Amino acid sequence: MRKTLATARFLAVLLTALLASQAAAAELLGPVRVCDGTAEWPPYIYYQREGDNAGRLVGFSLDVLREVLKPEQLSIEVSLQPWRTCLNETADGKRDVILNATSNPVLNARFLQSRAYYTTTPSYVYSTVRFPQGMGIESKEGLREYKGCGVSGRDYTRYHIPDDTLDTTSPDITSALLKLLEGRCDYVPISYEPFSAYTLTGEPYATDPALAHAPVPGMSKLEHHMLFPITPRGEQLRNLVDEGLKRLIETGRLHELLNKYGLE
């Protein structure tokens, strides 16, 4: 009798584990639902302006995710949304992946995080009319003495800028730079790589003589990750992405994609 009960319990546990495994595998069926902030982030994600792909979202981050998911034959559905909406829907499991995010304690508590797959150079943009000789910033603390204009939803925690000196009401980089040129702020914090890549969206900010940029002294490169909901599906996807990124690094494919977008 005891042997029969033990066998029954073992079979029940085995069946439960099998069903759980099948359910977890089934969760990865269907398209991977991807979101990012409304403000484009070239060359990582932006709308193609010309050619056969005009109007389509393209970029380094999407290329990387597609390469990672290719062996699993998983398709992608991607949209740009207000940053807060993207965060909330992903945290709730309505979205599967946030493509581009830096690491901070708030996000770390809400999401699973992939390994870093690219870095950017923290910089600031200023008006050459107001500061023809440059702003003379000698350390990252130097920005605290000035008024900044940022983009809503962007993570500026690594800049250590006091909230009362940084206006983050601009919906996109164009609006932030317009405020700068109007004299409503002194600088715009932005990583150099996307700033120089806005030519891809028809906005050659980096070559505008009214604007200049400089790296923030003393700041290290910013690592960027993908974020996933804290769910069984989210954990599976995070693990899948981390394994895929490792493969892309080891085969040199990640380096090829970085070169494709002029990032190395």
Number of strands: 13
Class by alpha and beta content: alpha/beta
Mean pLDDT, all residues: 89
Task: Please report the number of helical segments.
Answer: 8
Shape: globular
**The named CATH superfamily of the largest domain:** Periplasmic binding protein-like II
Radius of gyration: 22 Å
Strand content: 15-25%
Biggest sheet statistics: 6 strands, mixed
CATH fold name of the largest domain, please? D-Maltodextrin-Binding Protein, domain 2
Give the number of domains: 2
| Unreliable segments of 5+ consecutive residues | 10-26
Q: What's the CATH class label of the largest domain?
A: Alpha Beta
Structure description:
Helices cover 36% and strands 23% of the residues. By secondary structure, it is an alpha/beta fold. It folds into 2 domains: 32-119 and 222-260, Periplasmic binding protein-like II (D-Maltodextrin-Binding Protein, domain 2, 3-Layer(aba) Sandwich); 122-215, D-Maltodextrin-Binding Protein, domain 2. The strands form 4 sheets. Strands 1, 4, 5, 6, 7 and 13 form a 6-stranded mixed sheet that branches. The protein starts with a helix and ends with a helix.
